[in-house]
Structures
1.
Amino acid sequence: MPPPDPETLQADMAACRAMLAGGSKSFHAASRLLPRRVAEPATALYAFCRVADDEIDLGGGARALAGLQDRLEAIHAGAPMPHPADRAFARVVARFAIPRALPEALLEGLAWDAEGRCYETIADLEAYGARVAAAVGAIMTLLMGVRDPAALARACDLGVAMQFTNIARDVGEDARNGRLYLPRAWLREEGLDPDAFLAAPVFSPALGRVVARLLRAADMLYRRSESGIARLPRDCRSGIAAARFVYAEIGRQVERQGLDSVSRRAVVPRHRKLRLMARSLNMLAERPADLAAPPLEANRFLIEAVQAMPHPVEAPLPVPAFRERLLWAVELFDRIDRPDRGAVGIVRSA
């Protein structure tokens, strides 16, 4: 792919930023948590995700997915279609050696959402989380200059954990929109009929036990993710650590509300977010057993795709001096109190 002239490069990035500002406040705010060397390529990634999400949401189904896969193939071939997001993302793909399997997984997950796919088991739900959340986490880890498989596995853990938290918090809202993400087998084990619940979503102690079970699964992944966060560059850790602790706290808030996420919506108060983020770096620890833990089976293909890809030829940019981004983080998590479904609430607009 020939290098772009400066005017085209600036115009493409301006268009990407405009797409995010107009369609995803949470991504737009999140970019403020990252050092510029990461925020710029992340903007291109998120803009392409925005375009993909819109294409599938328009009801294109399999045809839209096929068209997006063609665009992704052109991006990885270094001959992107004449769209600012495609051109900008193609430069990111080439510079950071991002394997096609990662953004392709995200496209697949968005298509699963559009088709209203059901998830019978927790393994099925992990496969969904791998696509709409872990794939983005893996790409972001590459943008931070980290390709270590152990760190990637923990980044994917964090993505799935955050997706589980979103699901646990939005059970009622999802059901009223005709969607059910809780494992159907778990509901049946509690004597609940998934289709009957969808038809008339009401809270019950049995449903609360299913939500609690999902939150426990998320907590295990949050804990493991800490060892991966500790391996990120210093200037990236504060924002990612904040995400880890604030999202986990959403689960605690669901618990405080009696696990009822049908009639009530859990919101973490601003003062609690502030305390968590102030403590977040001190709460992190690199635990050898967690770092060495194998990835979730659903995430394995993402990590293997990275390992099979040659490292980027261009050396990563030097890491600038660490700066605390606490107040920006507070603003971010106030803005995303309504997490959307795809890509841990960032791709899909509020």
2.
Amino acid sequence: MRLANKVAIVTGGGSGFGEGIARRFAAEGAAVVIGDLDQGAAERVAGEIAKAGGKAAAVTADVSNSSQMKALVQAAVGTYGGLDIMVNNAGMPQRNRPMLEVDEAAFDRLFAVNVKSIYLSAIHAVPEMRKRGGGTIVNIASTAGVRPRPGLVWYNGSKGAVITLTKAMAVELAPEQIRVNALNPVAGLTPMLKEFMGGEETDEMKAKFISTIPIGRFSTPQDIANAALYLASDEANFITGVCMEVDGGRCI
């Protein structure tokens, strides 16, 4: 049990990569609080974890809202006694389109969910980690922040911000034994894929995308969960400020 006696929050844990991370963490002994806009999805995942013998709770949370992020953190503290691991997985895609066709409201929402959420997470989670004498934060960034592509300009920028924030947070929080790392997944077969492809997910478009990944397939929630597990575990206790590509070689 690599996360025995640990308490973890996973935002966006009701589907996709977040669901994979929540399930993996619970299987390794963590008590997991699943935050998601979709309460039903969060409850489904928490219920299935509990049926499998794990510990999980579901909380409705908009990661761009400070009071809801505070409530999410307090749910972990109130239910399980503290907080050791914060996984900032919740995010939103940008529909592939020319940069000038993205309106201001879409831009603001993109940065609120993908970037401001990291700030709010730190504001509310770091004080609880300090009470435990340390902790770990795993931010889910993207290959888009490393190898930006046309049609996703503002999404690329939001994930580039997550990468820079991860490194800066890691340096500042290291003396307090709070480690901060990020994962850069390549696209997977999640609800976001259709948006990245311009709103239409066809076999031809998927094949074209896969052709850019040397290993020859999309990422899976299990791929991302395995990497997140390592970074969150004590096995990585000398690793901070790392932004790890989980991308089948796409960023090479």
